Amino acid sequence: MKLSTPKPVLSWANHDLASAEIQMAKNVASLPLVGSVIATKEAIVPAAVGVDIGCGMAAVKTPFEADRLEGKLKQIRLDIEAAIPVGFNQNKEVETAVSNWQGWGDFKELHPGVQRLDGKAMKQLGSLGGGNHFIEVCLDTEDQVWLMLHSGSRNIGNMLAKNHINTAKELAKLAGEKLPDRDLAYFVAQTPEFAAYWHDLQWAQGYARFNRDVMMARLKRIVEKHLAGGKQTKPLLQVNCHHNYSEKEVHFGEEVYVTRKGAVRAREDDYGIIPGSMGAKSFIVKGKGNAESYCSCAHGAGRSMSRSKAKKQFSVEDLMQQTAGVECRKDEGVLDEIPGAYKPIDEVMQNQSDLVEVVATLKQVVCVKG
């Protein structure tokens, strides 16, 4: 399928794009500032980053082997659920590592619309959130135990994004700019609005990364309690990567702002994490530095149906069947996250074999959903 657009649109999907997807691709590629995937020159589109700024993954390869987990999976899951708040919940107390985070020193410089949220932001640091966010204990093909989680910048990132997206839309309206879609309103570099958004974006991305670090430290302590009598162990490999974010990078000899929404940076030797659903495989990968993709790859399987459709189409019995062998909740509350609502992860990986190489293939044995 050939798209007629001012800038090229490349796709690694193995299916025809739906009409809404085609329109979105055309809209983005018709902006005067856009290269591709989405690389922008001297400007940034806040809605392209989205509201879960810095959402991403963290994984740790532990020195433990599978046999250590025998008979302990349920208690590990219960301990995770007790130690890490999920959904709309937050920490009751703020641990020292959180209160000492250097990002708090910049809080007063963030958008005025979030200034009353400092207490909430502090209590949510080290919490999972809802939707497709998760915490897992996995095994690789060598029966080595891995820890993995998926989360972002929580309410503070959401509110920062919404405030800046609204500002961008207001500016476009005042300028009488005719955009193909209001959500493509952008900030131009060297303006105060751009500087304010870029500052807040970097702050929220730092918050999201540290949020994953805090949760991973708790998860590691829980697993060490059960598998090593509480003795601290050294990770064999650690990965922490965003998949909803923007960074300044050099591509094709030009400095651009690369916004990856649902995509992971995959420069040569970059480590990344590509998860499947709560009953499918996940992959630790290393980038191949594919220039045409702006050194990026897909961040996961992606949904093949909406949450409401999944709830109508599947039953709790289906969920139990599709998550057989995984210690997790198997009730209506997580039915919308059933593996059948997601695209096959093997297909996704096959489609991007030119973007990444697989370092490890993981399968979860414990899964805690947000």
Written overview of the protein:
The protein is 31% helix and 23% strand. It is of the alpha+beta class and 370 residues long. It has a domain at 38-264: tRNA-splicing ligase RtcB (Alpha-Beta Complex), CATH 3.90.1860.10. The protein is globular and about 65 Å long. The chain starts with 18 loop residues before the first helix and ends with a strand.
The helix tally amounts to 10
As a percent range, the share of helical residues equals: 25-40%
The proportion of strand residues reads 15-25%
By CATH reckoning, the class of the domain at 38-264 would read Alpha Beta
Distance between the termini: 38 Å
Q: What is the gyration radius calculated from CA atoms?
A: 21 Å
| H/E topology pattern | HEEHEHHHEEHEHEEEEEEEHHEHE
Mean pLDDT: 92
- CATH fold label of the domain at 38-264: tRNA-splicing ligase RtcB
Major sheet size, sense and barrel closure? 8 strands, mixed
Based on helices, strands and strand pairing, what is the structural class?
alpha+beta
Task: Characterize the overall form.
Answer: globular
The CATH architecture of the domain at 38-264 would be: Alpha-Beta Complex
What are the segments in which pLDDT stays under 50 over at least 5 consecutive residues?
Answer: 30-36
- Looking at CATH, the homologous superfamily of the domain at 38-264 is tRNA-splicing ligase RtcB
Total count of strands: 15
